[in-house]
Amino acid sequence: EEDPPYVFVVFGASGDLAKKKIYPTLWWLFRDALLPNNVNFVGYARSALSMEQLKASFEKYCKVRESEKETWDRFLRKCAYVQGKYDDAEGFKCLQKLIDGMQTAANNIAVNRLYYLALPPSVFADVTTQLKENCMDKGDSWTRVIIEKPFGHDLQSSRVLSDHLARLFKEDQLYRIDHYLGKEMVQNLMVLRFGNRIFNPSWNRDNIGSVLITFKEDFGTEGRAGYFDQSGIIRDVMQNHLMQILTLVAMEKPASLNAEDIRDEKVKVLKAISDIKLEDVVVGQYIGDGEASDESRRMGYKDDSEVPRDSKTPTYAMAVLHIKNERWEGVPFILRCGKALNEKKAEVRVQYKQVNGDIYPAGDLKRTELVMRVQPNEAVYLKMMTKKPGMGFGVEETELDLSYSSRYKDTRLPDAYERLFLEVFMGSQINFVRTDELDYAWRIFTPLLEKLEKVTPTQYKFGSRGPPEADELMRRHGFVFTG
Ligand code: BG6
To answer: ipTM score of the complex?
Structure first.
């Protein structure tokens, strides 16, 4: 039996995402022999590039070791480049010819196609239309299309895009990437909840006081401020990455591990989320730290020449969401994300309520917290009270700590993209965003984004914890800083 051939085509092959993420990911998967045997990679872009030039653009991000040189050469021999326009059939016909050649070389077994659109939204529609007309499988193999956000700018534009895609492809051909779904700890959420009897019975409004989902970065938007200013932190991170985490934390147990069952449950959570009130939101924008004359000063958002002087685009946002269902009514889900903060960190913090009938001196008992640290240093830890060891009677807070770096020393945790690419090869859509899911997420955030257009974000310093009002908002919703 001959192995079926596959082709992975990268549209936007000369762009930033392709060189920094997509090619390195393909290389690592290839190097570790995780891809099907007979796979070829094709880059497609408008510029006249030789394969040598394309290679030069991604090579340094691939981190090829000396001992891997031979495998690297084999990888490169499987790479090709097609120059073509995005709105003209000619290039797509060349691509189709190239794929036909792969079929001939594989004893005429039809080629499975993965098309990755690492492209700006402005050419999305053209490329997909051309693909549909010129580059589809003929029924004895499959075609899957992978797309990257932004999936529209608001509910309306997202619907236009989704309708367009639905005219061309079936839902099971569409793979909308949200790379947070590929992260180890995000994938672990379901196992923790549904694989341990201890958590699920307490996973509700009777026991949980609040859920805090945090995304912080310690760098600003330099290099991509042009894109960022059109989008802002809510579209860039909150509406997708943080909402995906929220739905996994909040959803009911799905009927099975099947992609449709899981995504059905996520959609139910989104449907139950109430409108976000402006008073439950804090937005911020970072300014430079230090004096303008100071050479080591990190510049503020608006100091960037790509950002308009009067930009009101938030680089920090906190929003408190409420899920109106039997499990969660009254429990605030606090989403918080920001650029240019004091640290780089992403985590989920489930804060339990104060114990009832406290018998210890007032204030001694801290709240139990279950923390799932997505990055850096993946960990799950439970902050809990214990007797202070020794002669005394006092209590203190301690941790039950599962740090992956010590418990799973010898396991390499794959990059999110590696896992997600493999899932596309396998045809698993569990970790990809379904059309209705996207639609409901936009329904929640579009009205808020419209209201925020008139709001001037609070300034915060590069390297700080963000606007102080955010802590205030958390306290108002019952979050307790345990220190
Ligand atoms: C991207 C956002 O989706 O995620 C970026 O556009 C952000 O603004 C990035 O920096 C964060 O991803 P990671 O995997 O580095 O946490």
So the answer is: 0.96
